[in-house]
Amino acid sequence: MNLASTYSVFFNTDAPDDHNSSLHLCTNNGGENNENCLPIYWENLSVHAMIKKDRWLRSSITTRKLLLNKVEGYIPPCSLVAIMGPSGAGKSTLMAALANKLPAQIELEGRAKIGSLSVRNFESHNFGYMYQHDLFCGSLTVKEHLHFMAKLKLDRRTTDKNLKARVSAVIEELGLGQCANTRIGTGGENGKTTLSGGERKIVSFATELLTDPSFLFCDEPTTGLDSYSAQKVIKVMQRLVSDERKTVICIIHQPSTELLNAFNQLILVADGRIAYSGPPNKAISFFESVGYRCPDNYNSADFIMKILSDSNESVNIVCDEFAASKHAEIVKNAITNEIYFDTSSLSVLRNHLSPFWPVKLYHLTGRYFLEKVRNPTIDIHRFLQKVGIAIMVGLCYLGTVQQTQVGIQSVQGVFFMLITENFFTPMYSVMNQLPTQLPLFRREYTSSLYDAPAFYIANILSFIPTLIIEPTVYTTIVYCMAGMQTDLYGYFLTVIITILVMAVSTSCGYMFNNIFGSLSLALTFVQPFDNVIMILSGIFVNLRSVPWFLHWIVKISWFELGFEALTILHWQNVTYIACSEDPDVPCLMDGSEVLDKYEFKVANLMPHIYTMIWLYVGFHAVSFVCFVTRARLNKLS
Ligand SMILES: Nc1ncnc2c1ncn2[C@@H]1O[C@H](COP(=O)(O)OP(=O)(O)OP(=O)(O)O)[C@@H](O)[C@H]1O
User: What are phi and psi of 473, to 5 degrees?
Assistant: First the structure.
């Protein structure tokens, strides 16, 4: 017997006609004509959150918080389902359990199946999952965002023409044409130049439609939308169910009676239990049978929410009564007599060919690059600040750089400023930036859009232009204004050295962030480390007098490496320095005496440059391993 069709009779009798007929068509075929039209059901489903009270005493103080308490339910194939309940009731948890999207620290017991397969057998591309809180790369326009998502989500065999057509179709279907070229924004800006909160919701929904998934889970898709837009979204969902045989499950808050009745099935969740499951228009009579009568002219959804939010006692009464009701019996019967589908032919399980890794890396790098170029708070403000500082520093050294005893101090001062400016600011800047990118990374990583190495490498690649432009501009301004006397080779190598100093500093920032896993902890440790690196640069202490156990730090102090390299570069060919007329002022006769004073050796120039390259690679390698490990263990905070 085809239980799916039997069950749909109970659940769809009063659904809108066009919708209803398609559902019957679908269920009567029992999935034969439409292989992806499958029921979803769950039984004895309990979900616990594992809460660690003290991260240092791990296992001893782990508590389990019950989020869902042995719930069961059945969603017929190709249904439009609404999940409702008070805040914190467990709606998102239930939906995440059905879509195999529960986070790692959540424990799931019981069965949740689609057709005859556990939901765990389904990969993320089988589901569209619209989160309650949208997250975007705000600098992209709607079209760019959808194009980027399509490039990463669609099967690699999709031609460019089809991909563009898909993006255009989704834009048209959801009425996003007017804002297709508007930047999405982060939600905090003046709404004139970016999308409104409601439009962002629709873009979020559009993103999930791109892959044409068989099962669409939407956490509060209508929240924040005006009633017209909400109706429009629900209409699209109805069409997906009726014309395209999809199953759409939504969490909704405060729907109008009209909106609520557009759904085939209503599931009420309260306090981690099921308070009702059945046709929306039968919910009120169920509540009446339990002793809660909805006053005339009262919005039925508001009434239901009032009862379920009232007290634990009323929630328990409703849930107990539901468990003993005919509605629960129908659910039980449907689950007991579950249909065994031949899953071998399911197209949802057929091999989806994800885009090649380099293709993902290419698009991801492009997105981060656009983000940097378009988001002034990321790089442009810092760049302008750097130009300003360069001019100020240049003014301070204007006319002071000469081949005299006094000029030696100025030259060394210029080098100190070149190193300092490319040492501290870039390091702290990347340390602060990385955590801001993590929420979007976590969301996209758990959706299997790309992996942690792709994110990390894309981040580094997109930073390369900044890494070259910033030190080059800064060094050039200071060099010209201070009047450094050098040839083109000297200038070129000076720029390379400052670029390397900045590169090592940023890689060190990444490394500390990823070793410690939290910005505050990383900052606590990086500051003393920085200071030691700077003190051991040869400027503040003679390197000969440094205690033996700190020699290894001198060897990796890129402050020292950079400063020494610049000093050698400048002084190695200076054959004459004028002495002061004052006999009390010590006289360094030529460049080699200047180098001797600092204990710097000409032969160290190129080795120091190579060491900085190795430090850059080494710091990033450590950082990369820590980042990828943390991502896999779900420990990125
Ligand atoms: N990872 C977690 N760790 C601990 N508690 C959690 C976790 N996830 C959810 N919870 C708790 O589980 C309960 C149910 O959360 P859930 O997000 O499912 O509620 P909801 O019904 O969707 O609420 P809302 O309508 O406010 O989004 C809440 O009390 C929440 O604090």
Answer: -65, -45
Q: How far is the CA of 112 from the centre of ligand 1 (A)?
A: 19
Q: What is the pLDDT of residues 558-616, one digit of tens each?
A: 999 999 999 999 999 888 888 877 777 788 888 899 999 888 899 999 999 999 999 99
Residue 266 pLDDT: 94
Question: Do the Cβ atoms of 478 and 418 come closer than 8 Å?
Answer: yes
Distances (CA, A) of 621 to 159, 232, 518, 617: 36, 49, 19, 6
What pLDDT, on the 0 to 100 scale, is given for residue 18? 38
- Work out whether the CA dihedral 449, 452, 456, 457 comes out positive or negative: negative
Could you tell me the sign of the dihedral formed by the alpha carbons of 153, 158, 161, 167, in that order?
Answer: negative
Strands 127-130 and 80-84: unpaired
For the chain, the first-to-last Cα distance in angstroms comes to: 51
User: Reduced to 3 states, what is the DSSP secondary structure of residue 187?
Assistant: coil
Instruction: Please name the residue whose Cα sits nearest to atom 17 of ligand 1.
Output: 92
Which of 3-17, 333-347, 470-484 is least confident? 3-17
Q: Is 66 in the pocket of ligand 1 (CB under 6 A)?
A: no
Torsions phi, psi for 341 (to 5 deg): -90, 150
Q: Is the pLDDT of residue 375 over 70?
A: yes
Give the residue, by CA position, lying nearest to ligand 1 atom 1. 49
Alpha-carbon Rg for the chain, nearest whole angstrom, is 32
Structure tokens at 148: 């980027």
How many residues are given for the chain?
Answer: 637
Nearest to 265 by CA among 250, 245, 244: 250
* Paired sense of beta strands 40-52 and 106-114, if any: antiparallel
Q: Which atom of ligand 1 is nearest the CA belonging to 96?
A: 18
- What is residue 515's predicted lDDT score, i.e. its pLDDT? 93
SS (H, E, C) 501-561: HHHHHHHHHHHHHHHHCCHHHHHHHHHHHHHHHHHCCCCCCCHHHCCHHHHHHHHHCHHHH
Please name the residue whose Cα sits nearest to atom 5 of ligand 1: 49
- Name 490's Cβ contacts closer than 8 Å, sequence gap at least 6: 569, 570
Instruction: Reduce the DSSP state of residue 47 to 3 states and report it.
Output: strand
Q: H/E element holding 265?
A: strand 265-270
C-beta of 89 in contact with ligand 1 (< 6 A): yes
ipTM more than 0.85? Answer: yes
pLDDT in tens, 51-103: 776 555 555 567 888 999 999 999 988 899 999 999 989 999 999 999 988 88
Q: Which of 151, 620, 103 is nearest to 628 (CA)?
A: 620
The string of pLDDT tens digits covering residues 152-162 is 999 899 999 99
Calpha distance 77→265 (Å, rounded): 11
Q: Is the CB of 67 under 6 A from ligand 1?
A: yes
Structure tokens at 144: 């760019």
Q: Which two tokens stand for residue 381?
A: 């403000």
CB-CB contact of 384 with 467 (8 Å) = no
Residues 6+ apart with CB under 8 A from 93: 47, 67, 68, 102, 106, 272
How far is 253 from 237, CA to CA, in rounded Å? 17
Is 92 close to ligand 1, i.e. is its CB under 6 Å away? yes
Burial class (CB in 10 A: 0-12, 13-18, 19+), 348: buried
